Amino acid sequence: HLVWAALLELHCSLFTFVLVTGQPLPKNKRPKEPGENRIKPTNKKVKPKIPKIKDRDAADAPPKTQSIMIHMMDKGRFQKPAATLSLTAGQTLELRCKGNKIEWSYPAYLDTFKDSRLSVKQQERYGQLTLANSTAADTGEFSCWGQLCQGYVCRRDETKTGSTYILFTEKGELFVPSPSYFDVVYLNPDRQAVVPCRVTVLSAKVTLHREFPAKEIPANGTDIVYDVKRGFVYLQPHADHQGVVYCKAEAGGKSQISVKYQLLYVEVPRGPPSTTILASSNKVRSGDDISVLCTVLGEPDVEVEFRWIYPGQKDERPVTIQDSWRLIHRGLGHTTRISQSTLTIEDFETIDVGYYICTAHNLQGETTVATTVESS
What residues form the membrane-spanning segments (predicted)? Predict the structure, then answer.
C-alpha cells in the first residue's frame, strides 16, 4: 500500500505541473530524491555581483559647497568670477551673492578710511557690494557668505560662500600703493613674516632686495616664497633676516620700486594681553553718564577680543559697547597696537553700582581686569 501511495502522489505532482505551466516535464528531468543536492555543479564562469558601497554614510559626508558670488558686468551681463580676476582701475565693481542674509569681507584699506566709494546693501534675494571709481589700492580679496540664524544668534553657513582676488590695474602703478613710505615688519621665530609687496599686474616679475649691503634676496621656495596675494613670505624668520628691504617689479617693459620695509627681529615670546581698565569716574551721581575703558597694548598684528561683565547685565540694563584699535609709533622703528573697548551707560542708576569686569583675549590667552563704580 505504501508503494502505491507514493506512485499516486508522484503522478498527481506531474499532472499539476502540466496544468500550471502548460508544458510537460522535459524528458531529461527527473524528480529529486529526498536529501539530494539541489545545486547542479557547472563549469560556467559567472561574474560575481559586487554590491555598491557608498564612500561614506550620508551623515558623515561633508556638506557640498556652492559658490554664491556673481560678477555683474556691462550691459547686464554676469558671470561667476574666477579665483583671481584682473580689472582696469576706474571701473565700478559690482558683486552679488545669492541669499537673504549675506555678510561681506573686503580689503581692510576700504574700512580703515571709511571709503564712501564702497556700498554694501542687502536686497530681498541677494547681497550687493558696489565699489565706484576703483583704484590700484583696492586690490585684494573680496568674499561673501550666507548666515544661518536662530533668533538673534547667527553663524556662518560654510556651504554657501564665494570669493575672488581682484587686481585693479592702474597706469603707472605696478605695486598696490602703501599708506606710508616706510613700514615695519616684525620677525617672530615661531611664525611666518610677510613683506607685503603686492602687485596689480598678475604677470609682473617681482624680486626682493636688501638695501645694505645692496643685493637681491632670492625667493628660493625654502626660506622665502612669493605669494601674489600676500607678498614675500619668510617661512622661518631668524635674526639674520633683519635689515631694510624693498621690492622691484617689472612688467610691460616698465619697472617700479616699492616702499621700504624695516625688518625687526622679536625674541620676546608672545603672551596674554597686557590690559588696563579705567572708569571715567568711580563715584557717579544718579542721572549722570559713565564710561569704562578697557585698553590693551600689543604687537601691531595681534588681534584682541573683549568681553564685559557689569552689574546690570542680568536685568538687561541697556549699555553701549564700542571696540576699536589703532597703531601708534613709540620711538624709532617701533610700532604698537592699541586695542580698546568702551562700555557706556547713560542715566546712572542704583542698579549700575558694582564691579565692571573686562576680559581681553588673544591667541596666547586672556587677561581679566576690574574696577568698581559707586554712587556718590
Answer: none
